[in-house]
Amino acid sequence: MESRGWPMRIAAVSGGLCLAWAGLIGSIHLDSRFTLPWTLGAVVPCYFAGLFGWWYAPAHPVARRLLLIGSLLAVSMALRYTAMLLSLGVGWGREDLEAILPPAEDLVVLMASEVIDLAVSILVVRLLALLPDGRYRFPGERALLRSMWALLLLPVVLPPAGVRAGTVGYVVFYYPEAWFPGLGALLLVIRALRARAAGQRDAARLLPAATAGAVLFLARASARLFRTWQGEDGFFYLLGTVLGALPYVVISLCVVYAAFRYRLLGVDIVLRPSVVHGTLWLIINSWYLGMAMTLGLTAGQYLPIGLAVLIAVTATALFQPLRARLNRLAERRVFGRRLSSFELLVQFGTTLEHAYDLRRLAPQLALCLKEGLNLRWVRVRLGGSGLPAALGAVGEQLPGPRGEFPLWYGDEVLGVIEFGPRTDRRFTPEDHDVVETLARQAALAVHNVRLTAELASRVEEVQRQTRELQASRARIVHAQDSERRRIERRLHDGIQQELVALVAKLRLARNRLDRGGDVLAALTEVQDDAYRVIDELREVAHGIHPPVLTDQGLVAAVTSCARRMPVPVTVHSAARLERLRLPLDVEESAFYLVSEALTNVIKHAAANRVTIRLALGAGRLSVEVADDGVGFAAEHTRTTGGLGLTGMRDRTEAVGGTLRITSRPGAGTTVHARLPARVREEAGA
């Protein structure tokens, strides 16, 4: 506070008091048609914008000049309104001003007001002409702007020279107030052009805005001239009143905006955006209220009350689009472009259409919420059973108020949304509904991702099973071909040769018989060979499909196979299973599983004992072959396919069964299969 200086403090306090006093008497005791538009449209924006800038940059010339403009406008307005109040005798019990103040004092009050008005106009020129830093840069600026202070002598020199008071008012107030803002903008254009030539980019970049301001303010000054020609009546007075406050509003808005956006005042202003937006809103709406009231009150002076009310309503409606547009522009500049609730939902819905990865969806949801609702921070966690957790965080999480929305899908929580407070205002029920809707959409997206993952897993499993089925079918076909070739070789190399030898022996026996020799020994040998061929044919047929399996069922076939083994084999089966017949494919698969397992025991296990268990329950046939042999590493059986285990698995899976092999080196091997089984018939049926 010490660096702000007492003169500026006095100016700020005096301006505030005069503004409050002038606003009070102007709205209650005087004709508000002349008081409120100027108060709200010009004085209030300048004073509060200047107070704002001076508070944050007390030594900056731009902030000091803007505060002086606002304070001097308030003081001048207070003097004029007080003089008007005294002249009307409101609340003072006097008939006219001469009964209260002598002419000399009246002249002093009028002169002081005119000097202040002229000082305001000169300060406006200096404020605009010396932007952006408020200091002299080029030759001629100091001399020109300082010489303008000589104009303050006009209110003192003109009255003694015999100039009428009305003419002095026009020369001192109306003309400078109309033309000086345009003059200041023109000087700023010249300054920007000289800065461009000198390579000073900070001032050169003001050229477009300075040109637009010069055109606007000079056009406004031209329109304002008509007020002097028509006095206090007519359309041109109305137009001049509407445009009168325009430069003050524009200057105030531009200074406040540039202070935040471009560091016009040379300091980083750390202020809540809601305060900035509130300041801009106050300036815009003060101007809007002043202009709308001017139209309505002016119409009330010349038209019937009903028509005046209609015009006031029409004026409000006409200025409303401009006010709304300015408010939206201020909001966008302060807070950035913010999505509406509908746009936010649509944008996130579009994101969900391509949400296949939770690791990308979580940050997108967090960013969408933070930007759409202007939140300080957002943290999103997505996941659920069967899915890895995905995190997304935007903004720095600070202590303070926080909200939390779980992502419910049915009775399951698929994530949570955590967020901090808004930066611009409080969290409203509408914001609550938006977050809740987004949470439901996100929960549905997570559920869909999980379904997609499950579907992909099932598709992959089906594809794996399809590949295994194709490989199994290929192996079965190959095994069948191999078995046919084996049978062919056995028939050709074994039985066929024995039958050829048997035919030869019969031919020898017939020759002996023709010569009258002894054929008994030859026939006996032929008989033994025939029995041996029959046994071999029976063994081949048994290898293709054992007749006992077809005639007596699975238990009998397994028991018969076990009896032929060179090691002790014990068969355990329920009595009920011996009387039941199962589907042929199941019985064949179970029998060949047992046969292959026993063959592996004989070839590789070096076992002393084998146990076979057959059981039926819950619609499944359980087949188990266990030995006490040397065992092996069972974890490699599927990949290596050794020991005939691949064929066993193919036969089991071909009928929809499952196979499990348990083995450990030195601890024996257990082959356990479960096959689907439904009873075909009972043996005694």
UniProtKB/TrEMBL annotation:
<keyword id="KW-1133">Transmembrane helix</keyword>
<keyword id="KW-0597">Phosphoprotein</keyword>
<keyword id="KW-0067">ATP-binding</keyword>
<dbReference type="Pfam" id="PF07730">
    <property type="entry name" value="HisKA_3"/>
</dbReference>
<dbReference type="InterPro" id="IPR036890">
    <property type="entry name" value="HATPase_C_sf"/>
</dbReference>
<dbReference type="InterPro" id="IPR029016">
    <property type="entry name" value="GAF-like_dom_sf"/>
</dbReference>
<feature type="transmembrane region" description="Helical">
    <location>
        <begin position="235"/>
        <end position="260"/>
    </location>
</feature>
<keyword id="KW-0004">4Fe-4S</keyword>
<keyword id="KW-0812">Transmembrane</keyword>
<dbReference type="InterPro" id="IPR005467">
    <property type="entry name" value="His_kinase_dom"/>
</dbReference>
<feature type="transmembrane region" description="Helical">
    <location>
        <begin position="205"/>
        <end position="223"/>
    </location>
</feature>
<keyword id="KW-0479">Metal-binding</keyword>
<feature type="transmembrane region" description="Helical">
    <location>
        <begin position="269"/>
        <end position="289"/>
    </location>
</feature>
<keyword id="KW-0472">Membrane</keyword>
<feature type="transmembrane region" description="Helical">
    <location>
        <begin position="143"/>
        <end position="161"/>
    </location>
</feature>
<keyword id="KW-0808">Transferase</keyword>
<dbReference type="InterPro" id="IPR050482">
    <property type="entry name" value="Sensor_HK_TwoCompSys"/>
</dbReference>
<feature type="transmembrane region" description="Helical">
    <location>
        <begin position="108"/>
        <end position="131"/>
    </location>
</feature>
<feature type="transmembrane region" description="Helical">
    <location>
        <begin position="66"/>
        <end position="88"/>
    </location>
</feature>
<keyword id="KW-0411">Iron-sulfur</keyword>
<feature type="transmembrane region" description="Helical">
    <location>
        <begin position="173"/>
        <end position="193"/>
    </location>
</feature>
<comment type="function">
    <text>Member of the two-component regulatory system NreB/NreC involved in the control of dissimilatory nitrate/nitrite reduction in response to oxygen. NreB functions as a direct oxygen sensor histidine kinase which is autophosphorylated, in the absence of oxygen, probably at the conserved histidine residue, and transfers its phosphate group probably to a conserved aspartate residue of NreC. NreB/NreC activates the expression of the nitrate (narGHJI) and nitrite (nir) reductase operons, as well as the putative nitrate transporter gene narT.</text>
</comment>
<protein>
    <recommendedName>
        <fullName>Oxygen sensor histidine kinase NreB</fullName>
        <ecNumber>2.7.13.3</ecNumber>
    </recommendedName>
</protein>
<feature type="domain" description="Histidine kinase">
    <location>
        <begin position="593"/>
        <end position="679"/>
    </location>
</feature>
<feature type="transmembrane region" description="Helical">
    <location>
        <begin position="36"/>
        <end position="57"/>
    </location>
</feature>
<keyword id="KW-0547">Nucleotide-binding</keyword>
<keyword id="KW-0963">Cytoplasm</keyword>
<feature type="transmembrane region" description="Helical">
    <location>
        <begin position="301"/>
        <end position="319"/>
    </location>
</feature>
<dbReference type="InterPro" id="IPR004358">
    <property type="entry name" value="Sig_transdc_His_kin-like_C"/>
</dbReference>
<dbReference type="InterPro" id="IPR003594">
    <property type="entry name" value="HATPase_dom"/>
</dbReference>
<keyword id="KW-0902">Two-component regulatory system</keyword>
<keyword id="KW-0408">Iron</keyword>
<dbReference type="GO" id="GO:0016301">
    <property type="term" value="F:kinase activity"/>
</dbReference>
<dbReference type="Pfam" id="PF02518">
    <property type="entry name" value="HATPase_c"/>
</dbReference>
<dbReference type="InterPro" id="IPR011712">
    <property type="entry name" value="Sig_transdc_His_kin_sub3_dim/P"/>
</dbReference>
<keyword id="KW-0418">Kinase</keyword>
